[in-house]
Amino acid sequence: MSADFNIEEELKKLPGTPGVYIMHDASDEIIYVGKAVSLKNRVRQYFQSSRGKSLKIQKMVSRIDHFEYIETGSELEALVLESNLIKEHRPRYNTMLKDDKSYPYIRVTLGESFPRIVLARSMKKDTSKYYGPYPTAGAVRDTIELLRKICRIRSCDRKLPAAQGKERPCLYYHIGQCDAPCQGWISEEAYRKHVEEAVAFLNGHTRETIRNLTEKMNAASEDLRFEEAASYRDLIDSVQAISERQKITASDGDDRDVIAIAADQSENEEEMRAAVAQVFFVRNGKLIGREHFFLTAEDRGGEAQILSSFISQYYAGTPFVPKELMVEAEPSDKDLLEEWLTKKRGSMVRIRVPLKGMKEKLVEMAHENAAHTLARDHDRLIREEMRTIGAMKEIAELLDLPKADRVEAYDISNISGFESVGSMIVYDKGRPKRTDYRKFRIRTVEGPNDYASLAEVLTRRFTRALEGSPGFTVLPDLILMDGGKGQVHVAEKVLSDLQIDIPVAGMVKDDFHRTRGIWYMERELPIEKTSEGFKLITRIQDEAHRFAIEYHRLLRSKGQVHSILDDIEGIGPARRKALLRAFGSAEAIRDASLEELAGAPSMNRPAAERVYSFFHGEGKENVIE
After folding, report:
1. Which of 78-92, 153-167, 289-303 has the lowest mean pLDDT?
2. Are residues 418 and 587 in contact, defined by beta-carbon separation less than 8 angstroms?
3. Are 492 and 479 in contact (CB under 8 A)?
4. Are 141 and 152 in contact (CB under 8 A)?
5. CA-based Rg of the chain, rounded to a whole angstrom?
6. Phi first, then psi: what are they for 498, rounded to 5°?
7. pLDDT tens-place string over residues 252-268
8. Calpha distance 62→9 (Å, rounded)
9. Which homologous superfamily does the CATH classification assign to the domain defined by 406-556?
10. Are strands 324-327 and 350-352 parallel, antiparallel or unpaired?
11. What is the CB neighbour count within 10 angstroms for residue 613?
12. 222: CB partners within 8 A, 6+ apart
């Protein structure tokens, strides 16, 4: 269980609104996505008695480490968002549809001279206008039928005006539901007005229609025409279902980020102002996920200033920039940000403030989620701020550094010098940045020489930085070595030889292999063991050690041992098996003399020389990082 996520406490904070909930395991993998009419009621059910739950659900619940959720405006929006997230993340406990079922849309064929209104199963980039997606085809068909009745929209698929007069008018003309454009008995201009009425209806202007239908339903009921009244009732239900504004999918299929800021309203000038930035990710027109970020502002500036700072910091550290950012209000330096983002993306990027329609509703939904996150998690986020960014500031102050936002830590792992490996882990603003972790196979060092192994790892890492190799160009503000004076001196010499100026400190352990303190500038600095800075140093040291050990275990696995022998040119499967049977392990093969190798079954002198050379330096070049 995450130390800062208490499931019982988080359950109490759940809202009773529709939305989607996302279950994570301890490694932060998404294992289940679900929708709910009431998030509060639905999510709580998972953590109540297991009676009546399937074994699959019980197993899934046992793996839940933490959860998050996205509030939506309706159950319908929750359904569509759930579908998008399942397709994007493919959680292991969700039922995956083999046919990738799609939801229906209403399509208005505006590119035709006499447009039609039809059901569509997908959106295309054409001249048509799309509405949806919607949960059932039945509601869509009822609404299309209704629009054909009240707006007199044609239902045929004749190619007009080319086919005018070639066939007789259909039944819908005779029952008064179509003006027969197929005969040329209504002009394009007059017909377009009917289409505009239908589009207005689909855009949400349905109040007048519902009022008229309700009056007709009541009148039919009073005249005891109950079957007719029931048909009006069903049409009203369809209109209400279809008129719910959809904010989950856009018809243009573009990539965009939707950003909203919620800030506390405290006027205390001495306190930091807390805020939450909510980012919705829309890819190919579909909302596929979100992230929220906790912010603190030292000034009492408005949300526009906070938004500007967030955009500049967030997109400085992300490789992908969408073609459009949708925000609540213009950031304070909009033009400059657009110029910078355009250069970073390589094509035009726009920052827009939508004022109406689906896009405005989507920004509104992002703000509501940000506000709820701030209200729910304010105290927890403050604590998280202290144990991450606050802890980094403590370390920077302790070492008298201007900042320590990015920290790299290094460790070496081996068993008697065999298969030595090095680990490089990265913490950014107090959090592990696993995408920047790196592993190193030691190439040039024989035996258990940690100092020489560290020198090799650091030389390779920072030489690549000087060469501009992708993934190595960002330099840290601080380097932390797993060890004390000796390890620090090794790192300082490597950096000096490469003419790189980065401060280096050592994470010192006591006799019980627990973090004791930090070595810097030729002395061990006193640090309070209950401070957040000390706790962060402990986490970094443990993480560096864990990452190195895991890699070393991988290399010691049976399959990897065989792959090491695979690297010896001219030694086939039969000889590899014979060597392993004769010597028992790769370590014993490495330690064998040339004569012992030549005398092994299936071996001869040339083959023995290839094996001996491989383990004694000449074959090391093909060992990869």
Report:
1. 289-303
2. yes
3. no
4. no
5. 33
6. -90, 0
7. 567 888 999 888 765 55
8. 18
9. UvrC, RNAse H endonuclease domain (3.30.420.340)
10. parallel
11. 15
12. none
What confidence score (pLDDT) does residue 297 get?
58
Name the range with the highest mean pLDDT among 123-137, 253-267, 458-472, 566-580: 458-472
Identity at 441, one-letter amino acid code:
R
The answer to whether residues 299 and 339 touch, using CB atoms and an 8 Å cutoff, is: no
Q: pLDDT digit string (tens) for 399-451? A: 999 989 899 999 888 754 456 788 899 999 888 988 889 988 888 887 778 89
Lowest-confidence range among 99-103, 481-485, 548-552? 99-103
Q: Are strands 256-263 and 324-327 parallel, antiparallel or unpaired?
A: parallel
Q: What is the pLDDT of residue 273?
A: 64
- Tell me which of 551 and 390 has the higher pLDDT: 390
Q: DSSP letter string over 145-181?
A: HHHHHHH--------TTTTTTSS---HHHHTTS---G
The reported pTM is 0.40
Name the residue with higher pLDDT: 558 or 373: 373
The Cα 560–Cα 540 span in angstroms is 28
Which of the pair, 302 or 497, is modelled with greater confidence?
Answer: 497
Give me 393's structure tokens.
């500031």
CATH 3.40.1440.10 intervals, the chain = 7-89
Confidence of residue 614 (pLDDT cuts 50, 70, 90): confident
The encoded tokens of residue 215 equal 């009056």
Say how far apart CA 428 and CA 497 lie, in whole Å. Answer: 26
Tell me the average pLDDT across 328-353: 87
**Considering the chain, what is the average pLDDT of its residues?**
81
CATH architecture assigned to 558-622? Orthogonal Bundle (1.10)
- Rounded Cα gap, residues 189 and 320, in angstroms: 45
What are phi and psi for residue 30, nearest 5 degrees? -80, 120
CB 34 within 8 A of CB 82: yes
Please tell us whether the domain made up of 256-384 is placed in CATH 2.60.40: no
Sheet with 30-36, side-by-side order of all strands? 30-36, 19-24, 66-71
DSSP SS3 for 294: strand
Residue-wise pLDDT tens digits, 460-491: 999 998 988 877 888 999 999 988 899 999 99
Of 133, 144, 141, nearest in space to 78 by CA: 133
Omega before 432 cis (within 30°)? no
Q: CB 69: neighbour CB atoms within 10 A? A: 24
Residue 18 preceded by cis peptide, ω within 30: no
Say if CB 27 and CB 87 are below 8 A apart.
Answer: no
8 A C-beta contact, residue 410 and residue 424: yes
How far lies 459's CA from each of 466, 493, 544, in Å? 11, 10, 18
Architecture (CATH level 2) of domain 7-89: 3-Layer(aba) Sandwich (3.40)
Ranges for all domains in the chain classified under CATH 1.10.150.20: 558-622
Domain boundaries for CATH 3.30.420.340 within the chain: 406-556
Contact of 172 with 178, CB cutoff 8 Å = yes
CA distance 81 to 86: 9
488: nearest Cα among 436, 450, 448: 450
